[in-house]
Specification:
The complex is a heterodimer.
Chain A (H helix, E strand, L loop, with lengths): L6 H20 L6 E6 L1 H10 L8 H15 L9 E2 L4 E6 L4 H20 L10 H19 L1 H12 L11 H4 L2 H4 L5 H7 L4 H15 L7 H13 L17 H4 L6 H8 L12 H8 L5 H22 L1 H18 L4 H14 L9 H17 L3 H7 L6 H11 L2 H8 L2 H7 L1 E7 L2 E6 L2 H12 L7 E8 L4 E6 L8 H15 L3 E7 L2 E7 L6 E5 L2
Parallel strand pairs in A: 1-3, 7-8
Antiparallel strand pairs in A: 2-3, 4-5, 6-7, 8-9, 9-10
Chain B lengths: L3 E4 L8 H19 L1 H4 L3 H4 L7 E4 L17 E4 L9 E4 L22 E4 L1 H8 L18 E10 L9 H13 L16 E9 L3 E9 L6 H18 L5 E9 L3 E4 L1 H6 L8 H13 L8 E8 L8 H13 L4 E6 L7 H6 L7 E6 L5 H9 L9
Parallel strand pairs in B: 8-9, 8-11, 11-12, 12-13
Antiparallel strand pairs in B: 2-5, 6-7, 9-10
Helix pairs in contact in B: 1-4, 8-9
Classes of the chains: A alpha+beta, B alpha/beta.
Amino acid sequence: MQRYDGSERRALERAIGEISEIARGFGLDFFPMRYEIVPADVMVAIGSYGMPSRFTHWHFGKAFQRMKLSYDLGLSKIYELVINTDPCYAFLYEGNALLQNKLIVAHVLAHSDFFKNNVYFSGTNRQMMESMANSAERIRHYERIYGMKQVEAFLDAVLSIQEHIDPYSRAREDGFAWEVEERPFEATLIQEKSISRDAHDSALTFGKYATGQGSGRYADLWALDARLTEDEGGAMGEGAARQEVRPGRNKSGRGEGDDRAKADRTSARRFPPEDEKDVLLFILRYSTVLEPWQRDVMTIVHDEMRYFWPQIETKIMNEGWATYWHQRIMRALDLSEAETIEYAKMNAQVTAPSRTSVNPYLLGLKIFEAIEQAYDNPTEEQMRRFGMKKGEGREKIFEVREIENDVSFLRNYLTDDVIRHLDLYVFAEEKDAWRITTKDIEKVRDALIRARTNGGYPTIVVRDGDFGRRGELLLSHIYDGTELDTRYIEKTLPYVHYLWGRPVHLETVLEGGAVRFSYNTERGEVTKEKIG
Amino acid sequence: MTEMSISREDWSLHRKGYTDQARHQEKIKEAIRDRLRELIHDESVILSDGQKVVKIPVHALDEVRFRYNERKREHVGQGDGGSRPGDVLGTTGDEDGSGQGGGPGELPGMDIEEVAVSLEDIEEALFRGWSLPHLERKEEAKQESETDVFNDVRKKGLMSNLDKKRTILNALRRSAHPAGTHRFQISPDDLRFKTWQQEEREEMQAVIIAMMDTSGSMGKYEKELARAFFFWMRRFLKRYYEQAEIVYIAHHTEAKEVSEEHFFSRGESGGTVVSSAYRLALELTETRYSPQRFNIYPFHFTDGDNVTQDNPTALKLFTELIARSNLAGYAEVSPYARKSSLWQTLEKIPKERFKQVMVRDKTDLLPALEAFFLSSETHKVG
């Protein structure tokens, strides 16, 4: 217990002071820092909960057990643990040697800089530690009133759809954009202009998914699209917009006998007017079976997911950025020979490659280094045409850390050279084994981007909140070439049903054909039917 | 100057990791309980002889969510510079997606929990709330055995009973003493010996008289059911008795005592006279397994197909048998739960020390066992 009260503590303080100065000298702009010295199990606990003050649930217990075991067996070490708050908390394991702490401090300062400056974090709640503590207290309170089991069962259900939110919208506070707009249902508007339903459908879907935009905030832009379609006499209708197999929606306008198509013909009103990405919030606002405490729990989960989302979406960048800087800072420190060797070992562990996954620390680092290199030494043509100057690499990577997320980072800056240099490949299941299927540069890049799209989770939207005009919920998986695991569909739909209180459906694509999974309590099991 | 602080708060309040971990463990146990029906007739459990640990996938413990089918997904990995398309990274394993590769959890799609379940885990879940009705101390069972219990340590004793650990410890302690020689040496004074005392133990014994119809109508499936049933019955009785023996009586028109192997394997053709088995069981309680020394548990597995004229005799003999037993049972295997004339005859027996259960298929095994042992007196029969 006394370990950090004496000379060691002073040494650590000195080191942190020095490292912070160097970091500032490099231009890193971080939050005030709070370093906490903690024992291993607390470290593991914070790691598995994501936040020291978070509510309790067996999901976290499972993660804790796994991490603790792996830690106890010496299989893994949590090197760094840093919380996106202002002030920014960084946790240091009490058994760390001074040198390890130096590396970690250098690393987390860059994380703190990233949290503070990356645009995707601009909306996050920097007092989240307190908010989560309050939320945890409320959940404890509900547990006392309604019983542990009931709260746990409800959380099981809510957590099953927690990824399906619209992370950057203010809809949780202000309501959905389409709820507050004066003309909430533009479908009506467009129909007034007597555009065929087909054209309208296509224009909406096309505009939306071509750009990945989700909410009605840019509805005016899609309306422009619709007008364009009108001008072209609906030329976009059939061909261009339907490049992908998309369940249900495409054909619904033509009414091939499914319930919703019939419903569509009788009324143009859609609910929600466009596919709604925030499934969690939609259910929270429109389910008719939720008690007030349950809505509160959903709000808590929604807020927490929204807080974690930017971190999920910038994993490669964030770790790459921190690794880039801990290397620069450590080099600037005056290390002894033994320390240099020890540091090199730790650094090698952090950036170790893996045959079956991508190490975000390494990949991010290499991309940032490649950007710097390229902008330090522009070609003659780049200087002539784009006015680039020599030596602008550092400036450029600061700009990149500000405006990109993993998907745009990979798309814009993962060069062929980096892919070749790191020997990246695509692998998949082929003939009962995991095999390298291709090393084609474009395919590797595409696979990486797909794996990072929507935080790596399948995109699920609310397509119809009044399916078949029976108040049923129709979810749709936006199929991008990767199928869902049907066993998990069968397990998740009953949870969604529990939250929605009425029959629920999920459209997706299996083996190239659109299918719909349905669950209602009378049948008591998930059924599957082909559609379209 | 710098905006930073180092602190060392007391984080000991943050122990929820352990409580949530305990909750997760509890969920695993619940999952075992939920799967009991399947587990208890799982051959790998029954034939494990208590040694093997069974691994069962517990899907209930996955974090449920919509997720990609990892086996139909493209993943990205990194080579050492010489990777080529077609290189194998690992095998994909069985249908469950739990393949084996470079290391556990390294390859995609392996998030399905496989929980190693030992026989004890299953027993703990299965025997919860069970009790053994009418457990009796048998007078003559006392002083059945004398056991040597090593429960003392002395300085003198037989060299073969030397307590090596204590001896070394003493030697270490002595040589570490400041006044000592600092050389490690075991002196005669360091020697410690384990000694024993004789204890008289009460030996409780039980015998299961397993009777089964081996006529042609009892197929392999029915016998598997019976085997699983007797397996768990015996495991349970072992909790109460040092000795829980099983004798097997196979019968068709006549009964004989057979080996376990014979009991569960061979089928014989011909009609069935149930009373023959009851008579033999009764004889056994008079000769080898007297009620003065043994707790007796006769149990009869049959399809109920008996020669009708035999029923009154069967009733009479079985009633006598029950009088000498702690608890007797009759299970009728019938896919359509159709009560035979034998069932109807035996229904007249008072239910205090007699349980009658209908087994349609293997999912009825658990209710059948529970009917026998679950302490609550109200259970559905048939």
